[in-house]
Amino acid sequence: MIRLDRSFVRKVNAMNVKLINPFINATINVLETMAFVKVDAGRPYVKTDNLAVGDVTGILGLTGVANGTIAVTFEEKCILTIVSNMFGEAMESLNDEIADAVGELTNMISGQARRELEQVGKVFKAAIPSVVIGRNHSIRHYSDGPKIAIPFSTEGGKFTIEVCFER
Amino acid sequence: MIRLDRSFVRKVNAMNVKLINPFINATINVLETMAFVKVDAGRPYVKTDNLAVGDVTGILGLTGVANGTIAVTFEEKCILTIVSNMFGEAMESLNDEIADAVGELTNMISGQARRELEQVGKVFKAAIPSVVIGRNHSIRHYSDGPKIAIPFSTEGGKFTIEVCFER
């Protein structure tokens, strides 16, 4: 479990803080078990700009006790390494196979996080993932709720999870 | 109402066909009333490639009687014209104001379509919109359901709505 500092907690409401750790746990677990990739979670922060740090993003809408969205944004080298590990063969470009793998990883991260949240009575439903491929694209979540970003690093490179729920 | 030809109807199941017209009606209505832009809907088709024809996309997840996602993808010139009309001043680049306008348009199209669907007993909940900005990005919906694309044209350029629901 990642410890969150007070200045961070002040910026987001209590509900949002409780939603974060299940997504961190699920991300680490999914990548370690599906892709055998060691994942280090950095300190979550409230996003003030809108530039996703990456070239491929899985986006998944959530509804339920709160409406929101999660986005998982990878640098090209990072996702190529992850998917190469998943498939056991070297992937060299951002193609449809990579997009499908990102869709599946997004589904699995959301699924595990939702199961953990359900155990504490917070029930969410998931829409279906959409995957964006494009160099230096930016993502903006259209909501008045805080946009929480969690940076991750792997041997292959970095990726970021963004979680945004409406107030 | 757009008439759908038989070969199209064969490719998607009956449920998906019934879901399409409310999105077409909502799109025309929202753009004509909010941006005073005349919109012509083209013939819907089942998407076989994954290239969104555009530079800005609003993505919104839906849950309910079926889980799905809608994506509204604009060419740069098209969305600049639309938002210039909405704000009554010339917009010249893809900035945060454009992203927020796309988020709001996506919300309004989804909201109107959902109200029409609710009147026939199909209740959906909407997540929150995410907006992607990036030249020539491609979007892939991760689902085994058909990906239905509806092309629209305006004086300022083209945009496409994609609707995908799981089977």
Q: Your description of this structure?
A:
With 167 residues, the first copy, chain A, is of the alpha+beta class. Chain A has one domain: CheC-like (Chemotaxis protein chec). The first copy, chain A, contains 4 helices and 9 strands. The first copy, chain A, has helices spanning 6-11, 14-35, 76-87, 96-119, and strands at residues 40-41, 45-46, 56-64, 68-74, 124-126, 130-133, 138-141, 147-154, 157-165. In chain A, strands 1, 2, 3, 4, 5, 6, 8 and 9 form an 8-stranded antiparallel beta sheet that branches. In chain A, helix 2 crosses helix 4 (96-119). The first copy, chain A, is globular. The two termini of chain A are 24 Å apart. Strand 6 of chain A pairs antiparallel with strand 7 (138-141) of chain B.
**Which oligomeric form is depicted?**
homodimer
**CATH architectural grouping of chain A:** 3-Layer(aba) Sandwich
Low-confidence stretches of chain A: none
Any idea how many domains of chain A?
1
Determine the strand fraction of chain A and express it as a percent band: 25-35%
* Helix amount of chain A: 25-40%
Average residue-wise pLDDT of chain A: 90
Main β-sheet description of chain A: 8 strands, antiparallel
Distance between the termini of chain A: 24 Å
Number of strands of chain A: 9
- Class per helix and strand makeup of chain A: alpha+beta
Rg of chain A, Cα atoms, Å:
15 Å
CATH C-level label of chain A:
Alpha Beta
The fold-level CATH name of chain A is Chemotaxis protein chec
